Amino acid sequence: MKSRWLQFALSHPRWVFSGLVVAVIGLGTQMAKVQIDTDPENMLSEDEPVRVFHDEVKERFQLHDMVVVGIERPEHPEGVFTPESLGRIYELSKRVEDVEHVVTADLMGPAHVDDIREAGPGTVTFKWLLKEPPETQAEADQVRESAKRLPMLDGTLISEDGKSLAIYVPVEEKSYSYQVSQDIKEIIADLDGPETYHFAGLPVAEDTFGFEMFKQMAISAPLAALVIFLLMWWFFRSLALVVSPMIVAMSTVIMTMGALIGAGFTVHIMSSMIPIFLMPIAVVDSVHILSEFADLYPKHRDAKKTIREVVGHLFMPMLYTSLTSAAGFLSLLITPIPPVQVFGAFVALGILLAFLLTIIFIPAYVVALSPKRLAALVSNTQERGSTEPKGLLVRAVRGLRTVGLGAPKIVLAAAVLLIGLGSWGISLIQINDNPVRWFRASHPIRQADETLNRALAGTYPAYLVVEPAAEAEDPIEAARAVVEESGDDARLRVFEDLVKNADSGVASALDTQSFEDPDGEDIWIRALQAFETAESEGRVFQDPTWLAWIERLQQAAADLGTVGKTTSVADVVKTVHRELKGGDAEAFRVPDSKAGVAQTLLTFQSSHRPQDLFHVVTPDYRAAAVWFQLRSGDNQDMSKVRDELDAWISDNPPPAEAEARWAGLTYINVVWQEKMVQGMLESLLGAFVVVFIMMVLLFRSVLFGLLSMVPLMFTIVLIYGLTGFIGKDYDMPVAVLSSLSLGLSIDFAIHFLERSRQLKRETGSWQKALPLMFEEPGRAIARNAIVIAIGFLPLLAAPLVPYNTVGVLMAAIMAVSSLVTLVLLPAILWVGNRVRPAVPASGAHPQPSQS
Amino acid sequence: MNAWIFAATLAAASPSAQELVDKASQAQYYAADDGRALVRMMIVDGQGRKMRRQFVVLRRDVKDGGQQRFLVRFEQPADVRNTVFMVHKKPGSDDDRWLYLPALDLVKRIAASDERTSFVGSHLFYEDISGRGPGEDTHTLKEETDEHWIIESKPKSPNDVEFAKYEVHLRKQDYLPETIEYFDRKGEPIRRIEAARIEVVKGHPTITRMKVSDLRSGGYTLAAFGEVTFDLGVPDDVFVERSLRNPPAKWLRAR
Q1: Less CB within 10 Å around the terminal CB: N or C of chain A?
Q2: Interface pTM (ipTM) of the complex?
Q3: Which pLDDT band holds residue B1 (cuts at 50, 70, 90)?
Q4: Which residues of A are less than 8 Å from B217 in CB distance?
């Protein structure tokens, strides 16, 4: 079969070219449909319970994703609390109302919240905190004082030092955050004041990330292509030759991305890196073919014959390296994180595509080259091949021989030591992520994050939703039970009618009925009482004992230190109660009776923003949301808060059995991370098994199968050990690279073992074969490692940390796995075959010295 | 001061619109000399979740188109029963308002702010209950049909209100507003009040069902005015602070 398509490619190169052009254009045009998705929520599939719950919580408590706009005036002693600054903030607030995709009703800023306060003896007032621009400093001071007095606002709307303000701009959809923040920036530019503005909050960070990511896709991938191109030109010194792998790489990238987008997948942060991953991988196979072609062509002087021989030679190793790399990425399908799965599947697809293109397009390309070009190629190669290879690479690879074969036992001991160190490093790994830290420290988003989280009680939201486990007793049932008990069927029928027609409420109908049926007055009154009791008891979060428990929970949260602030229905009740009772601090408490709470809340609802109450409790008072503000979006901090409070709750159970569940973006990040860490481990183990089986099949030897796993095991342990030692968080890109390094390190092992077995067969002994490995085969491995490592370096220029991480780790993986392949594998083979310090037969090369 | 003169000039330029609004205010808020209604409210939020309120409103006009007294006593839900609001409405200056919370045994005066705060968590504003002063806006007669006058009103102090203008469809037959629609600065409708049922009670055309919708959130409040009576002869001394703690049962609900 192999020879048949090769025959076709060689005899119909133009068909191959047109086929490729059609495929590239066909799939390439799909890219126009691209949809960017940077929502970390999508790291979990939509039906994931925590996401379903999170959406439900957002709906039930009418919560929106918020863009946080922090306003400072650092050089002024009053901060922003001057008439002029507040005037501008007032204007900004009013104009933000008109920005598209802003949920105006839930805007939370000084001009949009109520000030509840004692206004002289026996008087209470509700008015807008910043009703109009203040005219005097005294009025400005009043705004500050009022905001500091209200626990719901202190640390949220006004900074803890009382100098800065924040406006929380709710957006209809998280994906409008960037647009909304840009529109607000335009208004700010208009205001032209001395204030500085900061934009923070997860939605803005995430959405801005998408914007930057899009830019990076247009910069990093072409830059990687350029670097690889220059690198190959330097290695091969033939433009005609180097162009073909570039065509393979570009076509692979375009077709893969086209297929991904055409299949309806969004481009997530993971999949945006596909081009950068595929580019070097696609180049490598072509490089193998071309370098061997360049070596053999001068012998045959016949392009078709040469290419047949080359492909025949390289087909199996190339197939296996492609399959194993693909398997490494396919293993990501085990990880239950959809964007990671898509990434894995399409990189694997790209790898296989690159393989096909390499063995079809490259031969066609080569035979289509004009004889003149081929002649030039020959002269180039001959020039290179005419002398004994020299240069840095040659010397470096030979130097490795001195280490690997010269001191194999020391190498083995060092390997064991390194594995030990690596394992220790792994035990130090901090599993942590934070979408805001995906930006470099110098990025405005990071700076805003730092400034605002210093000034406010935290811009990272999480919610703990508490709900009693028992269903509320249906008030109608309670009333029906009373009527039924009376044993009068006629009355029961009246009752049913009354329930059916009581559009204005059953209570009122029962009340009326007690007058209309004097004989049954007592029954109707008792039914009404039963109805009201059930109704009232159902309203759990008007019950002082429940509110007291919520207060204690909030205290426990405050004691943790990591939580900037919590807000609950208890805070609303206490604040209104304080102002009703004259504004004294001792009145800052929950009233003793349920009716007291209900009447306090009724008073609160007579404000400009009655709906604010239902951000912390549902209208039926059966579920309460405690708002957490965290100063850090680090998953570690969020999981600590969750673990500690879950423990507190089990030690301090609520008044009745209840469910307490977490929601909020900050919490969702924790959930997907936990799933990813577990999933990655499973992916890695899965890939390990699959690759091992493939290796055993390829080498037809369990021993060699095991041996081929050594470099990748070593690489993974060392890379993650290093990650642990330098304190780099184990985050999303770091996690994904485990499968990547597996896929790539195995390439080196395959090439090394395959070639050394071949050489052993040719030379007759390991003694003779192994030193030869440090010539052309060793150089090929080193060259590949360098191409890939350097090919990823453009990522370091990206302003996004995950891209940098991948760039650095790829270079490290390439360095470690190539070194391990070239040092540890020969050492094992050397020691394993009990090779005595004999003189190898190959004369021209220096002997391995044995200590 | 300049602004005030300017506004006054504008109002004078369209006397018929102002006249209509004065008459409408009279018809809707000053019918008879006093009155009482049992008000049942169903507050429905954007997700269809319902809350109920029931209270009795007692009103007495000190002078037609001028001062008024209101007493509002809650009956439902049970937890807020006997909570009482009292208002001395004084057009042209700030109203006096009181609140009594029985569970806290607390009488409190509510200092004047603007009147566009929620009435006990419903979509009605305090002002929708007591009536917006006809002099607070500049009115223009936009259109006249066989049955309606369509009047556009713009606030004289836009900072005090959440709307940029509103449009009233005033019924010619009884001067009652059939719909009032409020618009924001962008001209988008944000709020609507509909008179869902109008009945003639003791010779007074009366809105007995009202729907107030928040067009942004999709929430609305249905208010039903039942047991409407007029000319009870309520004396002025019912509307005093003492009545908050001891609501005069005689006047609040006839059984």
Answers
A1: N
A2: 0.89
A3: very low
A4: 105, 611
